[in-house]
Amino acid sequence: MTSRALEVIGSAEVIVGYHPYVELIADLTEDKEIFTSGMRKEVERCQKAVELALSGKKVALVSSGDPGVYGMAGLVLELVTGTEGAESVQVEVVAGVTAATAAAAQLGAPLMHDFAIISLSDLLTPWELILRRVECAALGDYVIALYNPKSKKRIQQIVEVQQCLLQHKEAQTPVGIVRNVGRQGEEKVITTLGQFLDHPIDMFTTIIIGNSQTYVEGSWMITPRGYRL
Amino acid sequence: MTSRALEVIGSAEVIVGYHPYVELIADLTEDKEIFTSGMRKEVERCQKAVELALSGKKVALVSSGDPGVYGMAGLVLELVTGTEGAESVQVEVVAGVTAATAAAAQLGAPLMHDFAIISLSDLLTPWELILRRVECAALGDYVIALYNPKSKKRIQQIVEVQQCLLQHKEAQTPVGIVRNVGRQGEEKVITTLGQFLDHPIDMFTTIIIGNSQTYVEGSWMITPRGYRL
């Protein structure tokens, strides 16, 4: 967590967030009013945060990782700018460490060259667009970081992504998988594009797929930047 | 800065880094040995850090932003894994807030959907590959974050990027420019793909180009995630 995030949480009167994320910062919020809700209640949570702010409270709306990367920053700004009377709410977006770079640090240095971040969740995005992005990333030889790769009900997408990538990339391309990055129970494995589906993958997993230059040495996954050594 | 970065700097005996970055944390390093060097001395700095670590010192090698995104993490791991006798050096990569998400937070929420990060520096990467990546990102309708967009000597690349993007994207596509993000003298402007070259751009600038859904409302640049409001 950044020092700015700590400051903002410390000075807030109300904490709003997805229940498991608010639980992760329980030691910072003992003296505060708390409003939590469950999965897929994003709109409700953000509306609540905006309402509370309009009533004069200092509100911290908590996302995991960086709130501007598939987090709540966009929804709050959509509500504040789109709701009659809400324009007076002052919003600060506090940047954080997004899962891709947090996972990269555990794996070594896989993101040292141009990379693409793609969420495989097709709840809000047509699957065809997601798959097109995967293909474009492969054609551009990007390192690729996948968010929300798989859930209990959504198990086929990651298989299609692997098939798509294998048409453009070597099966031996290094792939790093990190689960629960930065949290209790953090696990990581370095494997290959051909084999990575043999490992456990869920919604708490970030997957990083190397570019054509990425290699594994010892326990590190490294994408060289191009310096001559 | 994250609390882990503060801890690691606090416990280090030697600080190694690019001179201006080490200067930014002068108040944290008063009691420490310092080794700094100038631009393009990356290999020398990392070699020095590895040598110092091999001599038994606790060394903090400082990058700005996230060290795993065009920073020094990769070079250190290349040296540690590739140098005879250096395998015994213990390395921890400390993730940070990379310029793209720091800049995004200042602009609003432009990175709420899939995005590509591209460095326009062609010192270590063929220009043709960089331009191919720009085109692939456009074809995939990614939000695009550009690092190192322009330097005193390197002024033509950003013009070619604009030309390439204008073949695939509307001239009215929102573009956010942030200079000195998170530092003294931070400046930002929200403009369009057709007009953004009229604004000052240098090596301390991060540029974020919206996808086809990105819009500007008030002083915010917002890429909707797709929630129904």
Estimate what percentage of residues of chain A fall within beta strands.
Answer: 15-25%
State the total count of DSSP E strands of chain A: 11
What letter string, H or E per element, gives the SSE order of chain A?
A: HEHEHEHHEEHEHEEEEE
CATH architecture identity of the largest domain in chain A: 2-Layer Sandwich
And the CATH topology of the largest domain in chain A?
Methyltransferase, Cobalt-precorrin-4 Transmethylase, Domain 2
Continuous helix count of chain A = 7
CATH superfamily label of the largest domain in chain A: Tetrapyrrole methylase, C-terminal domain
Poorly predicted spans of chain A: none
**What structural category arises from helix and sheet content of chain A?**
alpha/beta
The order of strands across the largest sheet of chain A is 5-6-9-7-8
Name the chain pair whose interface involves the most residues: A-B, 69 and 69 residues
Instruction: Report the oligomer.
Output: homodimer
Give a short account of the largest sheet of chain A: 5 strands, mixed
Helix content range of chain A: 25-40%
The best one-word shape of chain A is: elongated
Through-space gap between termini of chain A: 34 Å
CATH classification class of the largest domain in chain A: Alpha Beta
Average pLDDT figure of chain A: 96
Mind telling me the C-alpha Rg of chain A?
A: 19 Å
How many discrete structural domains of chain A?
2
Enzyme class (chains A, B): transferase
Protein name (chains A, B): Precorrin-3B C17-methyltransferase
Domain Tetrapyrrole methylase (chains A, B): 1-195
Pfam family, one (chains A, B): TP_methylase
